[in-house]
Amino acid sequence: MALVSSTPLLQAAKEGGYCIGAFNVHTLEMLQAVVEAAEETRSPLIIQSTVGTVKHLGPDYIAAAATVAANRSSVPIALHLDHCSDFGTIMQCIRAGYTSVMIDASHDPFEKNVEQTRKVVEAASAVGVNVEAELGRVGGVEDDIVVDERDALLADPDECAKFVELTGVHTLAPAIGTAHGIYKGDPNIDFDRIGRIAAKVSVPLVLHGGSGIPEDQVRRAVSLGMSKMNVATELRIVFSDAIKEVFAKNPEENDPRKYMVPAKQALKAAAIEKMRLCGSIGKA
């Protein structure tokens, strides 16, 4: 089947009380690994790329690879642009074939965030593309976006409701205490806030900073209303460690297939584990 919008996938997840894993990929092997994981577990899938990866590979290359994967797959697959603050890049990705985009104007004042988001929603909705936005500020590092922990702001439930109403955004990523990257200690997730936001908004909620959150906390966040979980750093580490292991055993190895295949297998196993944690297995 062709690439699909993530809107119906996430609405089904919200209604069904489960979560869909959204996996950041940076190479063809990483993309293939998460698709194979979704096929094996019968899980709906969201493939993600950061702005940095779009610049590195080109949106048309990424969309073409994701389209081939979707056409060969029997599970629904969406392609999402993560954390983008540039309208031009968002439009470029939509034209290339992305079926979901994130406008991140969370660094702007509320009114400006509304304005920026509404502009993207109007353009994307015309072609059936999902739009995600962020309210509050998730701490940590995502590509070249760095938010100091002291600058991270938790989303206000009433503002979330107002934001969704004013923008018509399809999915919302509220800051609830998670962080991008790997946690130095236990994450400080405000579960009460998740519940209060979910009670006030009708759209699916997105959990950013899904790498390294303890299992019980992921399950609790999902039970309270998180319908999409982003995973990036953890996948890069798994993939890279598998390659390092090959070179540790054979420093003279020069065939990319010999180190990419183990990396792909390791990433696939990690993705399957995240799908199990999200409760998306068998939901395709």
UniProtKB/TrEMBL annotation:
Dihydroxyacetone phosphate binds at G181, G209, G210, S211, N230, V231, A232, T233. Transmembrane segments: none annotated. GO terms for molecular function: fructose-bisphosphate aldolase activity; zinc ion binding. Zn(2+) 2 binds at D104, E134. The active site is at D82. Binds 2 Zn(2+) ions per subunit. One is catalytic and the other provides a structural contribution. Its cofactor is Zn(2+). The keyword Metal-binding applies. Zn(2+) 1 binds at H83, H180, H208. NCBIfam families: cbbA, fruc_bis_ald, PRK12737.1. This is Tagatose 1,6-diphosphate aldolase GatY/KbaY.
